[in-house]
Amino acid sequence: MSDSRVSHETPPRPLAGIITKIHVENFMCHTNMEIHLGDGVNFITGQNGSGKSAILTALCVAFGVRAKETQRAAKLKDFIKTGEEAFKPEIYGDVIIVERQIRDSGSNTTTKDVLKELVEHFNIDVENPCVIMSQDKSREFLHSGNDKDKFKFFYKATSLEQVHGLLEDIGIQLESVSVLVDECESSIRPIIKELDALKLKIESMEHVDELHHEMQQVRKKLAWLLVYEGDRKIQEQASTIEKLKERIPKCQAKIDQWTDKVVALKDQFEKKKKEIDCILEKMPESGRKMDELQQDLTLATKERYELEEKRTQASNHILELGKRASSFEKQINELQEQHLRNTEAEASEVEEKLKALQEDFDAATRIIAELKVEELTLIANVSMTTQRINQIASDIKEGEHKHREIISRISKLRLNSTNKVTAFGGEKVLQLLRSIERLNGDSWAYAVEAAIGWMLNAFIVTNYGDFQCLRECAKEAGYKAWHKLNIIIYDFSIPLLNIPSHKLPQTSHPTVLSVIHSENHTVMNVLVDKGSAERQVLVSDYGVGKSVAFDQRISNLKEVFTSDGTNMYTRGSVQSIHHPDKKIISGRLCGSFAGEINRSEKEASKVQDRVKQDQVTKRNAESDLESLQGRLNTIKRRHLNIELDSTSKEFNLQSLKNLCNSYASEATSFSASNVDEIQEDILKIQGEIKAKEMILEDLHARTKEAEEKIKNLKVSVQNLSELAKGESKAYDEAEKELIAITDNLSKAETKVSGYEEIMHNKVLQEIKDAEAEHQELLLNHPEKRKTASLIFPESEVESLGGCRGSTPEELRARLNRLRQRHQREIQIHSESLDDLRSLYEKKESKILRKRKTYEALRGMLKSCQSALEMRITKFKKNAHYLKSELTWQFNNNLSNKGISGHIKINNNEKTLSLEVKMPQDASKDKVCDTRGLSGGERSFSTLCFALAIHGMTEAPFRAMDEFDVYMDAVSRKISLETLVEFALKQGSQWIFITPHDISTITSGDRVKKQQMPAPRS
Fold first, then answer.
1. Cα–Cα distance between 379 and 385 in angstroms, integer?
2. What is its main location (predicted)?
3. How far is CA 729 from CA 111, 189, 275, 622, 909, in A?
């Protein structure tokens, strides 16, 4: 079978570059070995370890492969067997001997350049697996089923990898060349800009003469235009002076008119101010009188109630005495009757009567005790109600006084709102507060006023001399308390004090210094050194102030001020609280008077509402008091009546008891002595009744007088209340009139000062300036005409176009622009025009030469890029054609075993997959992965794939080591026949190395088999 498959055609002529002999000495396992190769197929067999693979390694090393790429050693010196030095090569003639000396110290090839030319000429690429496939590559190639490894094998074997790498290198080089050309082109851009600048300079230099000529013409026109303009100005100035003089009488009339109005308004202001002062003086007197009348009315009412009580008591006492006298008389009658009736029946009746009287007396005693308790309760309620009424009256009095103070404060604020200086003591100068710009909110105004108010009217001087001078000035100015003038001596040169944080109060509440802003460092230093403003803490209310001042024990704390001005501090173990001074000037630290006036009006309204509410409460309490007093009087009268009745019953009871006791012994006699005693008692009672009646008449008269007094006091209170209302209304009206007068006066004074300022600064000054300007024009006009005549004759002015339609300012501005441009051109262009033109031509020629060179380079670069793109396109087409050819060759090789297949190549993913269909597979499905085949089938299909690639490549010789690994006997036989047939057809020199039996291969002229000797022990 093998003979029939071997071709017997005439052998082709051997190719150039085949290997005829391989000689190795002291290399790997060989001490000295030489093998001759035929022109066709060469089989080298032998046992494992006989050195078959060393032959291929020697081929690779001889053709310049590095030691690592052989996968047999890391360095070339590792291939030396025993360490002897290599021998010198022979001089070759017709046969080229490629020899590489390997030493223990390294490797050296004396003809490396010649070897490189030889390899390139004969297309010998020992790194290509299609030229030399070593034992390791064979095992890896045949055993691996990785599609990426197959693609790499195909890409490298067909030299596509080499071509692709070359194309990429060329693309990178073209990009670097493009960058270099861009840099060259950018290097000439500054020269192009210089050329443009030179061109502008040349154009500017060409206009210098034109500018000079134009300047001369403008100067001539300007000279005569100034003369003509001077004539016109002289005439206009004369007429202007006449018009301005006509304004003097009108302005003076306005000044006189508003001056008279100011005088009249000042008189009205003084009168109205005196009227308000009188009203303000009367208002406290009216309030005092009202308080006195209210007090008198209360006392009179109290006196009337006391008199009425005394009258009631006297009347009751008289009635009681009358009843007692009647009782005594009745007793006498009863005694007389008892004396007449001396029987047991009468005695028994007396006892029954005595028993009834005893029961009545006991009942009266109980009622009297209950009435006493009720009377004491009512007396306590009356006392409490009276105290409450007195307290309410005191609150009403205090509220009315506070309301008058607020009204007075509002009037002062309204007067001071026109001039804030008056808020700081009338016409006194604003001293320290001038430097204070503002507070951080009006809520701290009262607190800051209470803390540093004594410093707000102080002066600050730098030494004692200024201190004395300032006091003398105050004395000369008529300041009353000049000797008490508050002056602070402080060094103005001291910079702003920087207070460390540990010396400040350790609290989150603000300090007086933190809420005051000032750009004057001296003012801030005075507040710190003289007022300790940095240690004065501000709080919102009384409770927080007590906690900060007394409970928290804050270090560096001097004082605490609440928002209403209350001061709290601790000195040692003593805790002090000072309520705000009512004399503090309120509102002067606030942002605006309008806001303070509104707050004061709201406060006055609240106080007035509270007073009205207290008055209603007082009236209700007085009504309750009258009701309680009425009940008390009723209880007293009832108590008195019951007490009188009880006394009478007690007397009768005692009489009956005495009668019963003496009835037995004195039944037959009549006690004249008892009757006399009773009559004496009756006489005494009658005397007391007469005395009480006289007292009652006196009390009645006094009660009428008290009622008359109360009536008169009520009338006086009502009249005084009406008078106070009238005064308050008059004060409000006068205050409104005063504010209106103040506004009108301010407006009138503003008008007067405005017209006076217009008169002095505008009318008279304009006349003075106009006359001076007119005089100056008259003096300068002849000189201007003379100068213009020297510059250019007047008769030739029209030849320049005349001066009409232009102004001196326009011509002067035009001349200045021309002069500036001329000077600028001269300063900028110091070179001559010829030099500039020569330089321009020189640079232009240089630029043109470089520009042409760079354009040529750019064109060549574009051509190279086009060629590269064309070659890349051709490379892709060749890769596609090679893919189709590879599939055809692969399928053709598989047909020797009755197998068909297909190859899929994905250039994007860089994968190559084999698809095989076995003849015994009736399902007609393809096996895509060769790992699904048996070992022999997979090795055979992989061999067919390798032969297909061999058929697409060219090389003078090819070598394969252990190509039949993993094959069974049948597959190996078919594979050997396929290899021999392919090798003979292909025509190159083939070297097959295998340890297996190759007896099925018949030797011939083009097929040579060699047996390697067995390895020595």
1. 10
2. nucleus
3. 134, 94, 13, 30, 107
CB 943 within 8 A of CB 963: yes
The two structure tokens encoding residue 110: 């004396």
Report the phi/psi class of residue 497: left, alpha or beta, with left for phi > 0 and alpha for psi in -120 to 50.
beta
d(CA 882, CA 971): 27
At 516 the three-state DSSP class reads strand
| Contact residues for 171 (Cβ-Cβ < 8 A; gap 6+) | 868
The answer, yes or no, to whether residue 849 has pLDDT greater than 70, is yes
**pLDDT, position 49:** 59
Q: Would you tell me how many other CB atoms lie within 10 Å of the CB of residue 926?
A: 14
Query: CB neighbours (10 Å) of residue 612?
Result: 12
Cα distances (Å, whole numbers) of residue 464 to 435, 467, 487, 513 = 22, 5, 10, 27
Distance CA 685, CA 683 (A): 5
Same domain for 470 and 385? no
Whole-structure pTM over 0.90, yes or no?
Answer: no
Residue (of 962, 1001, 982) closest to 56 by Cα position: 962
Assess contact for 27 and 81: CB atoms under 8 A: yes
Tokens of 71: 């996968």
Length of the chain: 1017
For residues 548 and 662, state if they share a domain. Answer: no
* Orientation angle between helical segments 189-245 and 808-828, nearest 10 degrees: 160
How far is it, in rounded angstroms, from Cα 637 to Cα 989? 164
Q: Which two tokens stand for residue 906?
A: 């994905």
Residue 889, both tokens: 């060759």
Q: Read off the CATH number of the domain in which 643 is found.
A: 1.10.287.1490
Instruction: Kindly state the greatest CA–CA separation across the chain.
Output: 211
| Per-residue pLDDT tens over the stretch 86-109 | 433 444 455 667 676 766 665 555
**pLDDT band of 436, cuts 50, 70, 90:** very low
Q: How far apart are CA 75 and CA 497, in angstroms?
A: 84
Question: What's the rounded Cα separation, in Å, for the pair 658 and 357?
Answer: 14
Alpha-helix residue ranges (DSSP H) falling in 582-592: none
Is residue 382 located within the same domain as residue 497? Answer: no
Alpha carbon distance 258, 748 (integer Å): 6
What beta strand segments (E) does 498-596 contain? Answer: 516-517, 536-539, 559-562, 567-571, 574-578
Helices (H) and strands (E) in the chain, counts: 21, 19
Q: In this structure, are residues 883 and 911 in contact, taking their beta carbons and an 8 Å threshold?
A: no
Closest CA to 944 of 982, 918, 997: 982
**839, 232 contact by CB (below 8 A):** no
My answer on whether 574 and 615 are in the same domain is no
| Token pair listed for 245 | 């003089």
Task: Compute CA distances 491 → 188, 463, 521, whole Å.
Answer: 70, 7, 11
Can you give the pLDDT at residue 217? 72
Amino acid at 494: I
What residue has token string 């061109």? 199
Apex CA 269: angle with CA 267 and CA 270, to 5°?
A: 65
Q: What is the mean pLDDT of residues 787-807?
A: 64
439 & 558 share domain? yes
* Domains of the chain: total: 4
Q: Hey, which bits of 525-632 come out as E strands?
A: 536-539, 559-562, 567-571, 574-578
Q: Return the DSSP state at 80.
A: B
